Amino acid sequence: MALETERIPARPRRLGDRLAVLREREFRLFFTGYTTSLLGSSMAPVAVAFAVLDGGGGGTDLGWVMAARILPVVLVLLAGGVIADRLGGRRVMLVSEASRGLVQALFAGLLAAGRAPVWAMVVLVALWGVGEALFMPAFGAIVPGLVHRKDLLGDANTLLGMARSVSTVAGPAAAGLITAAHGPAAVLLIDAVTYGVGALALARLRLPEQRPQEGGGTSVINELRDGWAEFAARPWYWITTAQMGLFNLLVWAPFLILGPLTSRRELGGATAWGLVMGVYGAGAVLGGLLMLGRRPSRPLAVATLAALGWALPSAAFGAGLALPWVLGGAVVAGLGSAVCGTLFNTTTQEWVPPELLGRMTAFGSLGAFVLGPIGLAAAGPLASRLGTAHVLTAGALWQVAATAVVLALPAVRDRRWNDRP
Q1: Rounded CA gap, 369 and 281, in Å?
Q2: Most buried of 93, 170, 259, 408, CB within 10 angstroms?
Q3: 3-state DSSP helix/strand/coil % of the chain, to nearest 5
Q4: Sequence-ordered list of residues with C-beta below 8 angstroms from that of 378, at least 6 positions apart, any chain
Q5: pLDDT per residue as tens digits for the range 187-208
Q6: pTM of the complete model
Q7: DSSP states of 358-385 as a string?
Q8: 56: alpha, beta or left, given left = phi > 0 and alpha = psi -120 to 50?
Q9: Please, are residues 167 and 35 in contact by the beta-carbon 8 Å criterion?
Q10: Which domain holds residue 42?
Q11: 112 and 146, same structural domain?
Q12: What is the CA radius of gyration of the chain?
């Protein structure tokens, strides 16, 4: 099966031309605010964890606080999709950024004053999670409107994905240094400021405002039902969503839990695990650079093949290979994640009508991530019963088998950019 790449003659392959999307004012402004906000968001979990532990809490308390962030995302995400479609992504994201900034500022103030019991942290982190649940569908809905040239949409998604990759490495590292020097309150205050920068960028965007939909007796439940019907009517979307959901359950969640354990037991400890995640992020940045200016003719097939890279680091851990082999697998996995994410986001934004993007993004995000917490909880007990190597190897084999099955489906394998959804 030849997965040829569609060339765009009007766009030379020099790096400066591949970054042409940054010449578009709205995208450039949004990218600056989003990247700044994202860096603060990636720092905050480290600060929250140490806030709980420094306050005398233990593992159970930390579990409650972390769960308080995830649960609202799961519960509010679908409603967030309806709200984004009703009001427009920009309005919803602006409210989300401003509200999360206020929450983090309050959290920082309570920590600085020494008045942050665990129950207060749970409440604040839950409010933070609600803001995230509103932000995610709105983000999916707003990106297509940020570029005037639709051939630049893929590059826009590539740069946004690279920003996420860099932040996952730089954010926690910076948070650790700042927490050690000044305490978790300082990190949360910085996070609050970065949310303010993100809100300011959104406020300055000049986009055609989506007019709030008239009520007309249409309930949130009815709109969700309509969104579900549209989701189910697009096999390419629900197939790839199901694939990603099972990947998070069977591959990624065990890797995140058992990878550090294997690193500690066999590869020298935390330094080895830090290197693995660091080169994974570097691979994602490399993948983003390689995707700039490229538009494979069958994007879902290429994205699915790229997802095969995620099997490699789990397989290397499971086989007991030396650290260089694990690092090599992590680089390929990171590269594949960038290619996969860029193509899935771009196809969704091009093939789904704008008035449905919020709800479709919400259904896709929920389907992709709802099983992840189960995988995180089950990985340890399964490893105790079956062996760490067996669980990691099973995940790698699953990824290979799932890739083969999905590529065999014409709805994914044969779909091209100009095919009508």
Answers
A1: 20
A2: 93
A3: 80, 0, 15
A4: 253
A5: 999 999 999 999 999 999 887 6
A6: 0.76
A7: HHHHHHHHHHHHTTHHHHHHHHHHHHHH
A8: left
A9: yes
A10: 17-151+165-207
A11: yes
A12: 21
